[in-house]
From TrEMBL:
<dbReference type="InterPro" id="IPR027417">
    <property type="entry name" value="P-loop_NTPase"/>
</dbReference>
<dbReference type="InterPro" id="IPR003495">
    <property type="entry name" value="CobW/HypB/UreG_nucleotide-bd"/>
</dbReference>
<comment type="similarity">
    <text>Belongs to the SIMIBI class G3E GTPase family. ZNG1 subfamily.</text>
</comment>
<dbReference type="Pfam" id="PF07683">
    <property type="entry name" value="CobW_C"/>
</dbReference>
<dbReference type="Pfam" id="PF02492">
    <property type="entry name" value="cobW"/>
</dbReference>
<dbReference type="GO" id="GO:0005737">
    <property type="term" value="C:cytoplasm"/>
</dbReference>
<feature type="domain" description="CobW C-terminal">
    <location>
        <begin position="324"/>
        <end position="386"/>
    </location>
</feature>
<dbReference type="InterPro" id="IPR051316">
    <property type="entry name" value="Zinc-reg_GTPase_activator"/>
</dbReference>
<dbReference type="InterPro" id="IPR011629">
    <property type="entry name" value="CobW-like_C"/>
</dbReference>
<feature type="compositionally biased region" description="Acidic residues">
    <location>
        <begin position="1"/>
        <end position="13"/>
    </location>
</feature>
<dbReference type="GO" id="GO:0016787">
    <property type="term" value="F:hydrolase activity"/>
</dbReference>
<keyword id="KW-0862">Zinc</keyword>
<keyword id="KW-0378">Hydrolase</keyword>
<feature type="region of interest" description="Disordered">
    <location>
        <begin position="1"/>
        <end position="25"/>
    </location>
</feature>
<keyword id="KW-0547">Nucleotide-binding</keyword>
<dbReference type="InterPro" id="IPR036627">
    <property type="entry name" value="CobW-likC_sf"/>
</dbReference>
<feature type="domain" description="CobW/HypB/UreG nucleotide-binding">
    <location>
        <begin position="47"/>
        <end position="243"/>
    </location>
</feature>
Length: 397
């Protein structure tokens, strides 16, 4: 994006009189605020490509009349051109955050480092906004950010993760997925994970964790090229909703950027879609669906134990020779023999099995979708079945 005054959002209230966002809301019973994390795949470093269009999308959100009060946290000082220039301020050599009301009701914040500090300071102004958008840097691994909202008591009590949106560049995605090992933007180590086998690019990580993938710059590729890009995205993550845009213009923010409910519900439709859609175009990462019988109590215990082995220990019971497990996203609906349904939600090693009061096990099958590295379908099914059989045999002996 060219840096021009014309593109600066219409900022109001640049200090001086206290603004509405300064109002402290002293009400501990306020509902939790949803947050969407926006990531963008990074341009191929040596080719000097332009970005995928994150600033263009944010510009749209910050200036469109959508009648929502969104707090937008920008995470790259000075990197998203015109949006940040008016609000970046320094004290000595340190850049600090600044909050501004925008003309369309949004508020905007820019911070230098991690978004967590910004979120904490944002929540002091709770009540002035009803949604948070957190933009992450191009190198961010969303799998490190998402669990914070489950694990951090302070943030988790006031904010809930609504979903992760990844924007990709239709023109450059395939190259980004093939960045050679040794390129500085290839993730070859992140803590606590075994990285044997094919290395993942940052783009792989960002797509595999996404609940929505926005394929932007569709005007720069042919229809045939676009089909290939879309198939590739779906082969990495069959659960995500994929939407194609030009200049980041989404037809509606709701369902594509906001109100995703990706962590609070698991729909049968999304699991069915994932089960149909997985191809194996990508050798390093993919989606696998496991179907299960309705489970007795002992089966649920076995499922929990098995998930701990797979997600916590990166170990597939019964297939200990397979290493390099790295689960990124887990979702499922699990029926029980008494007719109830539990929803399974997981990101990396964190997972939760919660009741779905609306669910009816008699009307739907049980299935779990895994997205991750080294995910092999038959071994997973066999491993879980073996764990289930062992627990049932133990119970009846
Ligand atoms: N042809 C075309 N150009 C686009 C589209 N979306 C954005 N652009 C242009 O691509 C360039 C980069 O867009 P940005 O929105 O700045 O991308 P970004 O992801 O924020 O990039 P960084 O700021 O480097 O992180 C700008 O010149 C945009 O005008 C699109 O759909 N089609």
């Amino acid at each position: 994006m060219e840096d021009s005054d014309d593109e600066v959002p219409d900022l109001v209230d640049e200090g001086g009189a206290p603004s509405s966002i300064d109002a402290q809301v002293d009400d501990e019973n306020l509902p939790k605020v949803p947050i969407t994390i926006i990531t963008v795949t990074r341009r191929y470093k040596s080719a000097g490509y332009l970005g995928a269009g994150k600033s263009t999308l944010l510009q749209h959100i910050l200036t469109a009349q959508h009648f929502k009060k969104i707090a937008v946290i920008l995470n790259e000082f000075g990197d998203t051109a015109s949006l940040e220039k008016p609000i970046s301020i320094s004290q000595g050599s340190t850049q600090v955050s600044e909050w501004l009301n925008l003309a369309n009701g949004c508020i905007c914040c820019s911070v230098k480092d991690t978004g967590v500090a910004a979120l904490e300071s944002l929540m002091e102004r709770r009540g002035a906004f009803d949604y948070i958008l957190l933009e992450t840097t191009g190198l961010a691994d969303p799998g490190n950010i998402a669990p914070i909202f489950w694990l951090d008591d302070a943030l988790g009590s006031s904010i809930y993760l609504d979903g992760i949106v990844t924007m990709v560049d239709a023109k450059n995605l395939l190259r980004e997925l093939h960045q050679p090992v040794g390129d500085e933007e290839v993730v070859d180590e992140h803590q606590g994970h075994d990285h044997t086998g094919p290395k993942l690019s940052v783009a792989h990580l960002q797509i595999s964790h996404a609940d929505v993938v926005i394929v932007n710059k569709t005007d720069l590729v042919s229809p045939a090229e676009l089909v290939v890009v879309e198939e590739r995205v779906r082969s990495i993550n069959s659960l995500a909703r994929v939407h194609k845009t030009t200049h980041g213009i989404v037809p509606s923010l709701s369902g594509l950027v906001l109100d995703l409910a990706a962590y609070s519900s698991v729909t049968s439709d999304s699991l069915d879609f994932a089960a149909k859609g997985h191809s194996h175009l990508d050798s390093s990462i993919g989606t696998v669906t496991v179907t299960l019988p309705p489970l007795y109590e002992a089966g649920l215990v076995a499922l929990d134990k098995w998930l701990r082995a797979v997600l916590w220990d990166s170990r597939l019971p019964g297939h200990e020779n397979i290493t390099g497990w790295e689960m990124h996203r887990t979702k499922g609906r699990v029926g029980t023999t008494d007719g109830k349904v539990k929803m399974l939600q997981g990101v990396r090693e964190i997972f939760d099995l919660i009741d779905d009061p609306e669910g009816d096990a008699a009307e739907e099958g049980s299935r779990i979708v895994f997205i991750g590295k080294h995910v092999g379908g038959s071994e997973i099914v066999e491993s879980f079945q073996r764990s289930l059989d062992a627990s049932l045999a133990q119970q009846s002996s």
